[in-house]
Amino acid sequence: xxxxxxxxxxxxxxxxxxxxxxxxxxxxxxxxxxxxxxxxxxxxxxxxxxxxxxxxxxxxxxxxxxxxxxxxxxxxxxxxxxxxxxxxxxxxxxxxxxxxxxxxxxxxxxxxxxxxxxxxxxxxxxxxxxxxxxxxxxxxxxxxxxxxxxxxxxxxxxxxxxxxxxxxxxxxxxxxxxxxxxxxxxxxxxxxxxxxxxxxxxxxxxxxxxxxxxxxxxxxxxxxxxxxxxxxxxxxxxxxxxxxxxxxxxxxxxxxxxxxxxxxxxxxxxxxxxxxxxxxxxxxxxxxxxxxxxxxxxxxxxxxxxxxxxxxxxxxxxxxxxxxxxxxxxxxxxxxxxxxxxxxxxxxxxxxxxxxxxxxxxxxxxxxxxxxxxxxxxxxxxxxxxxxxxxxxxxxxxxxxxxxxxxxxxxxxxxxxxxxxxxxxxxxxxxxxxxxxxxxxxxxxxxxxxxxxxxxxxxxxxxxxxxxxxxxxxxxxxxxxxxxxxxxxxxxxxxxxxxxxxxxxxxxxxxxxxxxxxxxxxxxxxxxxxxxxxxxxxxxxxxxxxxxxxxxxxxxxxxxxxxxxxxxxxxxxxxxxxxxxxxxxxxxxxxxxxxxxxxxxxxxxxxxxxxxxxxxxxxxxxxxxxxxxxxxxxxxxxxxxxxxxxxxxxxxxxxxxxxxxxxxxxxxxxxxxxxxxxxxxxxxxxxxxxxxxxxxxxxxxxxxxxxxxxxxxxxxxxxxxxxxxxxxxxxxxxxxxxxxxxxxxxxxxxxxxxxxxxxxxxxxxxxxxxxxxxxxxxxxxxxxxxxxxxxxxxxxxxxxxxxxxxxxxxxxxxxxxxxxxxxxxxxxxxxxxxxxxxxxxxxxxxxxxxxxxxxxxxxxxxxxxxxxxxxxxxxxxxxxxxxxxxxxxxxxxxxxxxxxxxxxxxxxxxxxxxxxxxxxxxxxxxxxxxxxxxxxxxxxxxxxxxxxxxxxxxxxxxxxxxxxxxxxxxxxxxxxxxx
Length: 979
Description:
By secondary structure, this protein is mainly alpha-helical. The chain is built from 46 helices and 2 strands.
C-alpha cells in the first residue's frame, strides 16, 4: 500500500476506500487514512479524513464508533470554522442527523444527553439558517422510540409542515421514515402509498429502496398483496445481502420468511450472516435481529422441528428450540436496557409483540429453492366415539360409501377400518373388502392379497366379486412385468365371468371389472408389441367389449360410468400406438369428458395431460392450453405435487409461447413450488425456476429474475437438464446483471456460458456470448479483458461469415483502445479495418437487400470513426494537431452523410444525424457558413413532416423533434456568434 504524501493522494485513497464493501476492513483503512492526513499538516485534510471515517462507521456494524470523530470535527469547527470549505461545512451539519439517530441506537447514552443533543442540533441549524424540518424529524424519532405517541404525532406534523432545505433528508429517506410511522400506527395502506415512489425507483439513495423494500413486506402481506410482497422480497434481499450496515432491513426479510411459510429460506438467510448474531456496534439493530430469530425458531418448534440443527452464534451447535430461548433472552435483555434508559416499557412491549406474531399465510411460494421443513402429517386417527373405542360400523360404512362412489381416500378409509377391526370377529365380506383395498394400495406387490380377498369373497357367497379380485391380481402381475402370464391368467377368469353372468350368477359391475382387467392387460401388452397390428387389434377388441357390455347401461352406477370413460381413453391410447394421433386426441377428450360428466373429474386429469401433449405435437397450441387448464381444474386437491408441478410447467411453456410472460411466470412459480413440495427441487424444480427466471426477465423484472436464476443454477446440470439449459440460464443471468449495473458479475456469467458453448458444433451462440462478455468487461472498466473477448468474438464472427458481428466487434475494440494512453493509432487502425470489412462485404453482397443493409452499416461505421476521432482530442494538445484531427473526423462524417444519402428516405434520420455532426465539426474548424448550410439542410429535410417520412409512431416523431431541435440550436449559436 503506497504511502500518502500529498492531499491529492489522500483524496484518491479515500475515494477508493469509499467504493469498498461495508465492514471492518473499510473502517480500518479509514483509520489509517486519518493517521496519514494528520501527517500532512493540512487542517482541511484532517477534516475530510474525519468525515470519511465518520461516514464508513455510519455505514457499518460499528456505528457506535462515529461519535469520537464527530466530536473532534465539532471541536475543530468551533475553534476554526474557516478551516472548513463549503462542502465540509455542509457535511458537518448533515451528520448531526446521523449522530442523533446513532445515539438512540446506543442504550448506554442517557436520554437526557440525547435531548440535550437535540437542542444543540436545533440551535446550530438555526444559526446556520437551516429549516427545522430535519430537527423535527429527529425529534419524532426520539419520541417514537420511547413510546411518547402524543409528542411523536406533534413532531411528525411539524416535520411535514417545515420547509425542505439542504439539511432535509433525501426524498427517499423521508418517505421511508413517514411510511414506517404509518405502518407502526396500523395504517398499512397509507404507508405503502408513501413508499410507492421509492419502491418504483423514482427516489433513491445509498440505502433506498433497500429499507423501503424490507419495511413494506409485512404490510403487503397483511393487505393480501402477496405478489407484490414476493417481488419486494426478491428485489430487496438482493440489495441488502452484501451491506453489512443493514441488519435491521435484513431482519425484516427473515421476519417475512417466518410469517409466510418460508422457514427454510429464513434459515438460509441466517446462515449467510453469522456475524449478525454477535455484532454489537449497533444494539438496536441487534435487538431487531434477535427478535426475528426467536420468531423463526418458534415457528420451527411449532412445526415439530425444535430439535433440528440451525445456524446460530459461532462456538457451538444449536437446535431450533435452544436458539429460540437464547435469542428471546438476548432480545429482551437488550430491550430492557433501552427501556431502563428511556424510563418506559415501550421497547420491550414491541419486542415481545414481534416475537409473538403468528403466520399471516400458510405458504407464499417465492420461486427460489426453499422446501418447507415440516414433518409429514400424522395419519388420521380412527373415529372414536364417547365410549373411547373406534366406531367400527361407522368406519365400515364410510369406507364402503367412498369405494362405491370411487371417491378419493377410499383406500385410506378401508385401512382405518382395518386398524379398528384388529381383534374383532368380522364376517367374510368385510374381511374380503379390507384385503381387496389393502391389495390395491400395495400395487404390484398386492397380488397375493388379491387372492386372499378372492377366497373371502367366495366364502361370503359372491363368486363374481371373487373373479373380479383375481382379475385385479392378474393386472398387477402385468404391472410387475409378467404381461404374458397375466394375459393367460385373465383369459380363464374372463371366460368364467361371462359364463357366470349369462347364468345370472353375478352382476354387470363384477363382470365389467373382469372384462376391464383383461382390456387393461392386453393394452399393456400392446405397449410392448412395437406396433404389432395383431396385438393392437386384440387389445382394441377387448376394450370395445367393455363398451359393448356397459355403455348405455350405467344408470346411476358411478363405477360403470367410469368403465365407459376409461374405455374411451384406452381406445385413444391404442390409436396413438397405431400412429393415428388425431383420433387419439379426440378419444382422450371424449374419455376425459365422460369422467367429468360422471362426477369423477380427478380421473380425467391423466387423459387431459396426454391430450395436451398430443395437441402440442399436432400444432394445436390452443387445444393444448385448454387441456392443461382443464387438468389443473379437475385435479383439484386430489392432484399430487409432482403432477401439479408438471402441469403448471407445461402450461407456463404454452402460455409463454403465445407471448403472455406475466401469466407464464405465475405458472412457472407454481411449478417450482409444487416441485419443491414433491421433493424434486433439483430436477423438475430447477427447470421451473429456470423458466420462471426467463419469464421475469421478459417483463424487465431484472432483480427478481436474477435472484431466481441464481437459485436455479446450482441444480442445473448438463447430465440432467442438458448443457443448453445451463448456457441459457447463464446467458439470462448475465443479461439481468448487466441491466442491474453488476457488469463484472455479468461478464463472469457470459464467459462461463461461452466456455460451454465453445464445444458446440454451431458457434453462433459462442460468438454472441463472447461479444456480450466484451460489453460487460468494458463497462466494468476491464479494458484489456474486454478487448480479448471482442477479439475472440471477431474471429468467430469471421469464421461464421457474419460481417455485422465482425464489424461491431472491431468498432467496440477501437473505442476500448481509445481509453488507453497513446491508444489513438490502434483505435484508428481498428476503425479503418471495420470500414474495409464493410466495403468488402458490400461488394460481395448476394442480393440487393443485403447490400442495402451493409451500406447502412458502412455509414454507421464512418460516423463512429468520425466521432472517435473527435473525442480523442485532448484539452492541452497543440491547436494544429487538434485541427488536423478534426479535419480527419470531418472526412469520415461527410462520407457517412454520402453513404446514408444513397439509401434515400429509409436512412433519413441517420443522414441528418451525420449532417449535424459534420456541421459541429465545421463550426469548430472556423467554417460557419458551411455549418449553417448543414443545419438548414437538416431543417429542410423535415419540412412538411407529417409523421410518415420513414414510418410513424411516437418514436418517429420524437426523433424528428430531436433532430430539428439540434439543428435550430446549432443555427442559433452560429448566427448569434459575433464574427
